[in-house]
Design a protein that fits this description.
Blueprint (H helix, E strand, L loop, with lengths): L12 E9 L8 H23 L4 H13 L20 E7 L7 E7 L5 H11 L28 E3 H10 L13 H11 L7 H5 L1 H7 L20 E6 L5 E7 L20 E9 L1 H4 L7 H4 L3 H10 L11 H4 L9 E12 L1 H7 L1 H11 L5 H9 L4 H5 L12 E9 L2 E8 L3 E7 L5 E4 L6
Parallel strand pairs: 3-4
Antiparallel strand pairs: 1-5, 1-11, 2-3, 2-6, 5-6, 7-8, 8-9, 9-10, 11-12
Helix pairs in contact: 1-2, 2-3, 13-14
Length: 442
């Protein structure tokens, strides 16, 4: 949340993903890729222009995921997968690297909110007026913990969060608004078609007619073409150097009702943070020498220093020789990372995937975020290892991560995945739009 007095410090960056899984050329023909590519690039273009106009990272990331939720091609919002009981249970989350005291929030078991990502954003923003978060009354005796209404909580689900959504004026809908024919057919085939009513039977003809207005709600599924699984997400860096990640999903196909995955869980499926590191200029400053070292010839001084590196520490240094940097030179710079995961959510939960990647980048010397993401989500990484001997058989461990790393105001887009493919679009370092699903170009 940049103030009006803030000055731009960064070039905006953006990357979006639309899910990951066992995508192959056999189950995902060129015609399907054209459809998905067009949709993803449209969202990328709209969000990139929004960022370039001065939008903050939170608003831009929320806008991108809202567009994904409105598009029935993806497993979120309209187009989400069904539970075993034939219901919809949506999840969403947002997190910023700074600017809001909650930093990150998640919502789950959402059925009647049209755009769960907007609910997550509202919960984050209204947290600025929440009470102390400990269940105490607000300053005016408000039992909800302040005028924000979420009582300082970072994670809410079910009827409680839907009641807040309605109170906050968010657009509500009938659960059936999220339903699509292709996902119902996927649900039926997964559980046995003879046991589950047909689409027309469960909806009624009038409801079906309402659902096909977008031109895609009535698309058939042949049981072979790949349907996107996992989370959708967007990571943005705005001109003020603030990172934001926004995620949304319908979860796993035919999951048990009540199951909550990594998407709304802080650290598992989404994360954003920043930290201070010593300035490279500071680290490159010449070290002060002791009076004894100053009396030695250069060659002998270097030899002794190599053998006894700490020799200078045994002698008092003058104020002139102990100065390590110019006073105008900053002692620290800001680094940061934001990521969104997609794939088998239970595997992400087991290893707290994206926060682990952020911790590697933050605490392991000389380890950029790109290598940290590869270590977690790349082939042979921690996600794959978490599946054990079930790898390649149950879908466990499959997934990918997108993210943006920031070092001293400069952003770098990163991503990796260990499965067949991951839908992703981004603006590269040269300002070009990129769209890919496999490791190589389609």
């Amino acid at each position: 949340m940049a103030s009006s007095s803030s000055k731009p410090t960064s070039r905006p960056r953006i990357i979006i993903h639309g899910g990951a899984g066992n995508i192959t050329r056999a189950n995902f023909p060129p015609s399907a890729w054209t459809l998905y590519r067009t949709s993803l690039l449209h969202i990328l273009q709209a969000t990139s222009a929004f960022l370039a106009s001065g939008a903050c990272a939170l608003d831009a990331a929320t806008s991108a995921v809202t567009l994904l939720e409105e598009n029935p091609l993806f497993n979120c919002g309209k187009g989400a997968v069904f539970t075993r009981s034939g219901t919809i249970e949506l999840e969403a989350s947002v997190m910023v690297s700074r600017g809001y005291r909650k930093r990150g929030v998640g919502v789950a078991l959402v059925k009647k909110v049209r755009n769960p990502i907007k609910l997550a954003r509202e919960m984050l923003v209204r947290g600025e007026t929440d009470g102390d978060g400990g269940g105490n009354s607000g300053g005016d005796g408000d039992p909800a913990g302040g005028s924000g209404g979420a009582q300082g909580h970072c994670f809410l689900s079910g009827p409680t969060v839907e009641e807040l959504a309605e109170e906050w004026g968010l657009e509500m809908c009938d659960e059936k608004w999220h339903w699509t024919k292709r996902r119902w057919e996927e649900h039926r085939r997964g559980l046995g078609e003879e046991q589950i009513p047909t689409w027309d039977e469960v909806m009624g003809q009038r409801d079906v007619e309402k659902l096909v207005d977008d031109g895609m709600g009535d698309l058939d599924w042949d049981g072979k073409e790949y349907l996107p699984q996992g989370t959708v997400g967007c990571v943005c860096l705005d001109q003020y150097g603030v990172l934001c990640v926004a995620t949304s999903t319908g979860g796993l196909t035919n999951k048990l009702p009540g199951r909550i995955g990594d998407t709304p869980t802080l650290g598992a499926g989404f994360w954003a943070e920043e930290w201070e590191v010593p300035s490279p200029q500071l680290l490159r400053q010449p070290q002060a020498i002791s009076p004894l070292q100053a009396m030695l010839p250069d060659g002998l001084r270097e030899t002794i220093s190599a053998c006894i590196p700490s020799l200078a520490g045994y002698f008092p240094l003058s104020a002139s020789t102990s100065t390590l940097q110019d006073e105008k030179q900053p002692r620290t710079i800001t680094s940061g990372a934001a990521m969104s995961g997609t794939g088998n959510g239970d595997s992400f939960l087991r290893i707290n995937a994206v926060r682990t990647a952020a911790a590697i980048a933050r605490f392991v010397p000389n380890r950029p975020l790109s290598l940290a993401v590869k270590q977690i989500a790349g082939p042979g990484g921690e996600l794959e290892a978490s599946a054990g001997n079930r790898w390649g058989k149950t879908g466990e461990g499959e997934g990918g991560i997108i993210g943006i790393e920031v070092v001293d105001g400069k952003g770098k887009v990163v991503f990796d995945f260990n499965c067949g493919g991951m839908f992703r679009v981004w603006i590269d370092d040269k300002g070009n739009e990129r769209a890919m699903v496999f490791k190589e170009e389609y």
